[in-house]
Structures are given as structure tokens and as C-alpha cells.
Amino acid sequence: MFGMNGSVKFRIRMFVIMVLTMITFCYAISLGNAASVMISPISLNIGSEKPATLLTLNNLGDSDIAIQVRIKRWVSGGFQDTLVDQSEIIASPPYVVIPAGGRQIVRLVDTNRGQSSDGEMPYRVLVDEIPRSGVGEGSAGNVSFQMRYSVPLFVGGPELNAADPEQRQVLANDLSRNLKTTVVTSSDGQPALKVFNGGSYHARITKLRVRGVDGRAVPVAEGLLGYVLAGEEVQFPMPSAISALRPGASLVAEVNSVELLLIN
Predict the structure, then answer these.
(1) Is the peptide bond between 247 and the residue preceding it cis, with omega within 30 degrees of 0?
(2) Which string of DSSP letters, residue by residue, matches 114-163?
């Protein structure tokens, strides 16, 4: 059960989900100095067959921008996310100044290739826009950030964004057998979708909708609902109408880009 603290965390998660829902194929961040940076891809993977992956930063603005890139281990539990310092995944280069209209490719390297623990390890890549005077200054605690952005990185798991649709379907079907979803009531009396991921890799849930007996679908969350890491349980706030699914109606979503039935 949740106490008052749980309710607060619940509302924070709702805010985060609303922000993430605004994201599509890539990130376009408008900065106060009339510059903007586009980041792609929006989800990264370092599989067992490769030691690194690439993150592309494009400056779409009319002035130079200074960027710092760091990687944190992503820990999810107790219905909140925590970012932890680590040293096994590094960014090269970690600091860069991108001229107006320019592009920079940052290499993310797994220095523990072949020595990592079994299963998928989740990380977050933090991309910070910092004042030009702050590049390379002292410790991270002495640098003031103007804009921060976070991109998920998964190491050691399968390539869930594989080009082959049949491969994506096989992986999604495997994950669906390990996803347990129920509609519950949170401590503040509002309905929520509780998802437990008993699989060995993450579930990225998007395009949640209710499908009626006539086959028509009503959107619940148009974009990204959120991530459920392997072995973790997450509750997502839902509209009040979701608690009264009519007989024959079902709850469907895209999980790792493949449509799956969550509740029937």
C-alpha cells in the first residue's frame, strides 16, 4: 500500500509521463540562447555482439552550444527511478562544443564487454547544455546546467529495435508471457495500471488504448506511457473511466513497437 509519500511519487510519475508523451522520433530542445539541439536515436542499445553505440547531436540553432554527456546506471524500484554513478560505460568525447548548424557523434563504449553480469543492464545517458565558460571546469558539482536531457541505454539485452519485424514479434511475444497487468486503485482513490515485468529485458509501453467489442479503439495514452525494467513493477495513473472496462473490451498497447494485448 502507498502512504502519503507514495501519492506524491505517483503524481511526479504522472508529470514525467506527460512530458515524455510529447517526444516523437527525436528530441528538439529549444534553448534560451536561440539555439536548439536534436538528439537521436531516442533509445540506445549495446548488444553482446558490439562494444559500443553512437549518439548523434545536431545543433539546429544559430549559435554555438556546449554539451556534456554522462552515463548513469538506472535503478527502478519502489515506484521511483534512481540514477547511480558508474564507470563501466563511458562517453567519448564527454564534452563538446557544437557550432551553429553542426553535428557531433558521441561514442558510448562498454568497457566491461564480455564481463558484464547476465541479463540486460539499464542506464540513462544525460545530455547537458552548459555555459561555454563551464566546459571542463573542475568537478560536475561546479558546473551549472542550462538544459538537461535523458536518453535510455540498455546494455547486454536483445536488439529490440531490430529491422526484422519477425524478430521484433518473437521478442515481444516472449516478453508478453512475462508481463502481468492489472487495473488497481491507488492510495488517492484514482485508478492505475499496474505492470510487473518478469522478463529479462525492459518493456517500453506506448499507444495504450481500450478496444471495444466492435473493434474500435479509444486512446488512453497517445505516445509513451513509460518503461518497466526487467524484474520491476510500475503503476501508471489512468483516467477514471478505465476502471470500468465493459465486458468484451480489452486493453492493448505497443510494447517495444509490437502491439500486444494487456488486459482482456
Answers:
(1) no
(2) TTSPSS-EEEEEEEEEE-GGGTT-SSGGG---SEEEEEEEEESS--TT-S
- Do 122 and 173 share a domain, yes or no? no
For residues 174 and 126, membership in a common domain is answered with: no
What tens digit of pLDDT does each residue of 141-165 get? 455 567 889 999 999 887 766 667 7
Burial of 171 (0-12, 13-18, 19+ CB in 10 A): buried
Q: Which residues pair with 30 in a beta bridge?
A: 36
176 in the same domain as 109: no
pLDDT digits (tens, 9 = 90+) for 14-44: 444 444 434 433 444 443 444 478 999 999 9
Give the domain range for residue 221: 165-263
Q: Which residue is listed with cell 536531457?
A: 149
Q: Quick check: 207 and 223 in contact, CB under 8 A?
A: yes
Question: Is it the case that residue 56 has pLDDT exceeding 50?
Answer: yes
- Residues 105 and 190 reside in one and the same domain: no
What's the CATH number where 255 sits?
2.60.40.10
- 167 grid coordinates: 524478430
14 lies in some domain: no
What is the bridge-based pairing of β-strands 258-263 and 250-255?
antiparallel
Same-domain status, 151 and 185: no
User: Region 46-62: what's the mean pLDDT?
Assistant: 90
Cβ partners under 8 Å of residue 85, min gap 6: 72, 73
Overall pTM > 0.85: no
Domain count, the chain: 2
Cα–Cα distance, 142 to 82 (Å, whole number): 22
Are 42 and 126 in the same domain? yes
What's the Rg (C-alpha) of the chain?
Answer: 20
